[in-house]
């Protein structure tokens, strides 16, 4: 479908960088949600009338209702590697191409995973709050004594690209013993490059000094870490979630932190974000960040540009760099 200018019309569902808009405007009539507010499903459907493509973020849901309301839509391009906001069965049934943004955020997200691990294990925010509150009036030997990072055991649940990048940092940079659990075991060369050993989920929970969650969200991964799993972890362990809200049972985690059944947690993602479980806000031994693991200007720009390139490639040449359902390309 084309606009009155004769060019295809697309929507950018969230405010993105001007260079990305300019890139898209070379090919399309571009409508953009100029605000940082998420469009409601009704607003999204309404704004998508007459549009053949849309750039989404993890906050906009693309499901059967939306696709039925927008039958002219040809491509949905997520500015995220995770795509649990996409109902892939409905998207496939509608013959719409879906794309995501892998690779461009791998190293940046792994850097952040490590930053959150370090901050959590070494009690960075807790001690800063103490200092800012004017409570520091003497030095003590055990002041904010945290957990060792170097030489400890790093457990990784979910060993995709980001999991592997975290494993390399742990093994090569911090001399950690790295163990992982994943749906499928890595090839021996990849395991060797990461210096990572495959273990069962039970062993991972039992052995990890620091457990990093990097698995994609799916119904099967819902509450992969809940009360029973937390009970299997060391009392001295830290838990880091940079994956998705819903993978951890946040209420169960808050209780475990309050009762010191694990030592600490670092969370970048939350169930029902941007709301945060109120109990997590009152426990001291948790570091909380607002879903910023991929947030450097370079990386967020690269993600938005990749989504734009997918839309341009598909609508002008029938090609996309990172399709999720490439079978649509051949139909
Ligand atoms: C995104 C993310 O910034 O890529 C992902 O899956 O979680 C983040 O990097 C976020 O989802 C916004 O779309």
Question: What does this molecule look like?
Answer:
With 331 residues, the protein is α/β, with parallel strands linked by helices. The protein has two domains: 9-104 and 297-330, Rossmann fold (3-Layer(aba) Sandwich); 106-288, Rossmann fold (3-Layer(aba) Sandwich). It is 37% helix and 14% strand. It is built from 13 helices and twelve strands. The chain has a seven-stranded parallel beta sheet with strand order 8-7-6-9-10-11-12, sandwiched between helices. A five-stranded parallel beta sheet has the order 2-1-3-4-5. The longest helix is centred in the C-terminal third of the chain and has 21 residues, at 297-317. The protein is elongated, with a radius of gyration of 22 Å. The chain starts with 8 loop residues before the first strand and ends in a 14-residue tail after the last helix. 44% of the residues are buried. The structure holds 2-keto-D-gluconic acid.
CATH top level label of the largest domain: Alpha Beta
By secondary-structure content and strand pairing, the structural class works out as alpha/beta
Mean pLDDT: 97
Low-pLDDT runs? none
**Widest sheet: strand order?**
8-7-6-9-10-11-12
Q: Please state roughly what percent of the residues sit in beta strands, choosing from under 5%, 5-15%, 15-25%, 25-35%, 35-45% or over 45%.
A: 5-15%
Q: Give the CA-CA distance, first to last residue.
A: 18 Å
Number of helices: 13
The strand count comes to 12
SSE run? EHEHEHEHEHHEHEHEHEHEHEHEH
Query: Radius of gyration in whole Å, from Cα?
Result: 22 Å
Q: What compounds sit in this structure?
A: 2-keto-D-gluconic acid
Using the 3D structure, state the CATH architecture of the largest domain. 3-Layer(aba) Sandwich
Amount of helix: 25-40%
CATH superfamily of the largest domain: NAD(P)-binding Rossmann-like Domain
CATH topology of the largest domain: Rossmann fold
* Biggest sheet descriptor: 7 strands, parallel
